[in-house]
Design brief:
This protein is of the alpha/beta class. It folds into two domains: 153 residues, 2-Layer Sandwich (Nucleotidyltransferase, domain 5); 170 residues, ATPase, nucleotide binding domain (Nucleotidyltransferase, domain 5), CATH 3.30.420. Strand 9, helix 11 and strand 10 form a beta-alpha-beta unit. The chain contains 13 helices and ten strands. The strands form two sheets. It has a five-stranded mixed beta sheet with strand order 3-2-1-4-5, with helices on both faces. Strands 8-7-6-9-10 form a five-stranded mixed beta sheet, sandwiched between helices. The N and C termini lie far apart (43 Å). The structure holds 5'-O-[(R)-(carboxyoxy)(hydroxy)phosphoryl]adenosine (KG4) and zinc ion. 5'-O-[(R)-(carboxyoxy)(hydroxy)phosphoryl]adenosine (KG4) binds next to helix 7 and helix 8.
Length: 355
Amino acid sequence: MLLRFVFGVFGMRQLTKDPDSFCTLGIETSCDETGLCLLRGPREIRAEVLASQIEEHAPYGGVIPEMASRRHQEMFLPLLEELFRRGGVENPSEEIDLIAVTQGPGLMGALLVGVMSAKGLAQGWNLPLLGVNHLEGHIFANVLHSSRLEPPFLNLVVSGGHTEIFLVRAYGSYELLGRTRDDAAGEAYDKVAKMLDLGYPGGPKVDALAARGNPGAFDFPVPLGNSSEIAFSFSGLKTAVLWKIEALKKKGLSPLPLEDICASFQKAVVASLTGKVRLAMKQTGILRVAVSGGVAANRGLRRGLSEIPEGDIFMPPPALCTDNAAMIAAAGYNGHMRGRRETLGLSPNPGMELA
Ligand code: KG4
Ligand code: ZN
């Protein structure tokens, strides 16, 4: 008992634990999903719960930060109880070995709920705590899904707030190869959906309509298609779609050919993303490519990437593409095993960079 106490105090008891039975509690609250997960070892999900706030934010056409943090606060403890019920956890301080929480980037108030809750639990249960970069979490959705994926590899992160290609040299060692100059890909999907009155979030809706449309119906520009720089830009494409919608309305076209507009817009987005992935492959000579973030659930993008002839492509299932706590737990576990340690001085960092 005394030995157990001493190990606990110095955060060393985990060193004695078999890595495959090591249990990480993952916490994700960076935006509009409250996610909690119990991860066993590097990739076995023992239990997970996720409360989405999409329906509450939908009438406003986007996430309302203040509302998001309040909902995280309301949901956190009931979700934790549900997680423990599902995972059969009776004595958290004995059964959990690490708490990993999203530190940033994200919404300040939303991050604050996750980080402060994690700190309280870590202190109360005398457990080590680790802050995880949300983007590293997205990368780890791939590691979680496939035991075959090993660095070095390229990772395209495409979400509502990010469009970036990282070179993963080793776990914990990331190089930013290129990013968007303006909007993120998911943001462009959401804005086009708004123009077409499809509701929020628009990505899945545009994806579904695009599957039934003609991608050659409208000739939208492929952003930075002729540039040899690894960079993205979606604001010009978004404006081109807006002008096309205005022109069609002026012609008196009703209803609008939603399927064709979505398919043509998606064709340009996918051409841009796959084109820059191929450029990054060429420039680095690395053919192993992973993709993650909400837009990685897009069927057109998944098809486009899988058709890259020289590529060894990794794509997590859609539930691991969008925000979840399993990916945060997986990144935390890996960081802990690499020797990363944190103190209770951890604080949220809304603008946190990965590289
Ligand atoms: O990774 P995520 O859940 O949250 C962020 O970290 O941003 O990504 C959400 C974004 C939203 O913009 C949403 O419209 C987009 O991912 N998204 C999609 C699809 N599913 C989600 N975009 C295109 N096609 C989809 N199937
Ligand atoms: Zn995300």
